[in-house]
Model the fold of this input.
Amino acid sequence: MIVRILGEGQYDVAEDALEQLNQYDSAVEAAVEADDPKAFAAALTRLLDGVRTVGVPHQVESLDESDLILPPADASIDEVRALLSDDGLIPG
Amino acid sequence: MSIMKRISLIFRSKANKALDKAEDPRETLDYSYQRQLDLLSKVRRGVADVATSRKRVELQVNQLEAQSTKLQGQAEKAISVGREDLAREALTRKSGLTSQIADLKAQHAQLQGEEEKLTLAQQRLQAKVESFRTRKETIKATYTAAEAQTRINEAMSGIGEEMGDVGLAIQRAEDKTAQMQARAGAIDELIASGALDDVSQVGAGDDIARELDAMSSESDVEVELARLKAASQPQAIESGDILSESPEKTTTEDEQK
Done:
């Protein structure tokens, strides 16, 4: 499957790596809910590093849609909240 | 999959909403291509803007470092003439500059990071826009209404996502640069007002420099005197009797006066 890290590009990630990534993802979600910036930054770094480690860069000239989209590496907890809201960060 | 899934869904629906849909699908392709080109020039401008800010910060770091070096020199000079109070003052001011320099260097690193990120975003978008152009021409050349819509949708959604990503990158870079420009502007004003360089401009209203200057002109006089005195000695040596001759000479001179 194709995973995009915003501001960084797309990666091809094998399906069997998803279970591990899901665990990292839950940690990110928990940190957002707990409003804990420190835990959030650590969890996001782990999640993105996980994608970079198991993934290989997707062909840059392809026009394929990503299956998953992740926040930029230096995103703040507020920016992630904005990404999760409808009138959020993405310029329309 | 919660966070990733939720962000993906919302991001995608936003990106798709942003795409123009024309009645004739072929027009949709052309509109979209035009918007891609617009976004490409926007990201190029973004890279140039961040580079300008980075250079400005570089210039400021250089200016402040030069001032810091001057203050260090003043402190050394003050110590050499036994004025610890002046040396302390110079070093205090220098340490004020040091923290400002560290702050500017951190900003510089951040701007450099933004510049690199935007440059890479530009390259990725460029590659996708190029593919889109090829795909668009193929679709238009072999256009049959029945299959066109699916192929157009495929091409559009992929590029729409990339455009959303690049748009976000530009916006974030602009926000960060704007914050730093405000701070850089404040430092430029300080430098222009002379509040920072007064400290180190010799003779230009700075107390440390003035005192050191006064002392060094005093000591210059002493050095010059010593040199003149020394220059008059060799004549005494030539006259042969060093030990008795010169004190006698001074006494004679004194008596003559």
Notes: The longest strand of chain A covers residues 2-5. Chain A touches chain B at residues 3-4, 6-9, 18, 21-22, 25-26, 28-29, 32, 60-72, 80, 83-86, 88-92 (CB under 8 Å). The mean pLDDT of chain A is 89. Residues 42 and 60 of chain A are 28 Å apart (CA to CA).
